Amino acid sequence: MRLAVFVLASALSAFALDNGLMKTPPMGWLAWERFRCDIDCENDPKNCISENLFIDMADRLSEDGWRELGYVYVNIDDCWSSMKRDKDGRLQADPKRFPGGIHKLARYMHDRGLKLGIYGDMGTHTCGGYPGTPLDKIELDAQTFADWEVDMFKYDGCYSNATEQEKGYPLMAKALNATGRPIGYSCSWPAYQGGLPPKVNYTQLGEICNLWRNYGDIQDSWDSVLNIADWFFENQDVLVPAAGPGRWNDPDMLAPLDAEEQRLYSELLPGD
Ligand SMILES: *[C@@H]1O[C@H](CO)[C@@H](O)[C@H](O)[C@H]1NC(C)=O
Ligand SMILES: *[C@@H]1O[C@H](CO)[C@@H](O)[C@H](O)[C@H]1NC(C)=O
Ligand SMILES: *[C@@H]1O[C@H](CO)[C@@H](O)[C@H](O)[C@H]1NC(C)=O
């Protein structure tokens, strides 16, 4: 049994994205499910997408014992950026809601043993209508995130088509690698292509992404949780072998639970 586990693990890691990250499933906090695209900081200062929200979460993770359990990622989702790129064409944070900028926020995380994740989109615009990272902006934006010392990047797929995604997701993997900074790479690609073969190639995903969103967003309801759990259950024969060190299925906010199940599955399989 032990030998079998070892052989399986090394076979998997040979095909995983080679950035040394996420040998175990990433754990942390992401803003979207609860805070959405609330940008009304005047009327809703506690809940709006602003640096204060992420600083607040960082304090909770580091002061309330979560960090010690492994919850180290604090991840920004959509609606963080300014509607306009800067004079050099770079993405920039909304100046009112993130007056300190993303680099300073990343330092805040690092000072507390945490990591910062950020969000972009393969299309012309993000799902929320902010500037996207289409094919011709991939290298520039990857470098910007590396310059800001960001630790993880979620690449969404709104306003892009299958042809662009086929080019863009691997290109971003190369661009992130070329920055020289290890940046965990989360691909929403399969969620835009139905989540299953033949449209989705999980072998390829494992080579270019550390994790991938397979299926729809989780909504704030138990029905939504059940719906996602059912889909993963029904398709487990495809999904379980896709996962391993450095390469994980991501059922959205169920990630910690599902990842633990995946770990158990991958340990149990060789002995079956
Ligand atoms: C880039 O890719 C090479 C080859 O796969 C790997 O050895 C290296 O660690 C990667 N670097 C980063 C920063 O991801
Ligand atoms: C996808 O989008 C690109 C660029 O916007 C366009 O040139 C191409 O025709 C589109 N492809 C399909 C299959 O819709
Ligand atoms: C899936 O991707 C792998 C690795 O990139 C490739 O070798 C294989 O041919 C692809 N499979 C299909 C059906 O396209």
TrEMBL record:
Residues 1-16 form the signal peptide. Keywords: Disulfide bond, Glycosidase, Hydrolase, Signal. GO terms for molecular function: alpha-galactosidase activity. PROSITE patterns: ALPHA_GALACTOSIDASE (PS00512). One of its GO terms (cellular component) is cytoplasm. Its EC number is 3.2.1.-. Gene3D superfamilies: Aldolase class I (3.20.20.70). Belongs to the glycosyl hydrolase 27 family. This is Alpha-galactosidase. It comes from Sphaeramia orbicularis (orbiculate cardinalfish).
